[in-house]
Amino acid sequence: MNKRISFKKIGNESIGFLSFFEANKDIPFEIKRIYYTYNVPIGTKRGMHAHKELNQFLWCPYGIIKVVLDNGCEKKEFLLDSPEKGLLVGKGIWHEMYWLEENSVLCVAASDYYNEKDYIRDYDEFLKLVKEGYWKDENKF
Ligand code: TYD
What are the catalytic residues? Predict the structure, then answer.
């Protein structure tokens, strides 16, 4: 589930470009919610949580955002530095996002409606669930 996706790109330098993705085709879930984070000061770190069931797809249409994914055993770093790139972040992945450039915008397509009960905001609780096999192999890289 956790992987980079490159968008298709239509257009040219004189008229600009258009990119798109489609639910159940380019990303492996139905989209129930879109949200975006903006006007975030450079150097800010956000996220710092995992989800019990939610799957998400992140992309940065403007700016540079570093995303660190952690499945409780292993960490991986991704750079969202182009509107042509996206990143799938599946359930059971602790994620942290670092704003590296002014006015960077993070967009997220999510598999479900907002539900605070789906969040794990305590890292030790996250590690405990990983150890108990809560996600079985579903959160492996
Ligand atoms: P959160 O997911 O913790 O954002 P970040 O990881 O970027 O800091 O959400 C921040 C706050 O916004 C939190 O109080 C929950 C609320 N929120 C909603 O009400 N609806 C949503 O769809 C999202 C994503 C967050």
Answer: 49
pTM beyond cutoff 0.90: yes
Strands (E), the chain: 4-6, 8-12, 16-20, 33-37, 45-51, 56-62, 65-70, 75-80, 85-89, 94-99, 105-110, 119-120
What CATH number should be reported for the domain holding residue 27?
Answer: 2.60.120.10
Residue 139 is assigned to a structural domain of this protein: no
Cβ < 6 Å from ligand 1: which residues?
Answer: 33, 35, 37, 46-47, 114
- How many structural domains is the chain composed of? 1
84-102 pLDDT, tens per residue?
999 999 999 999 999 999 9
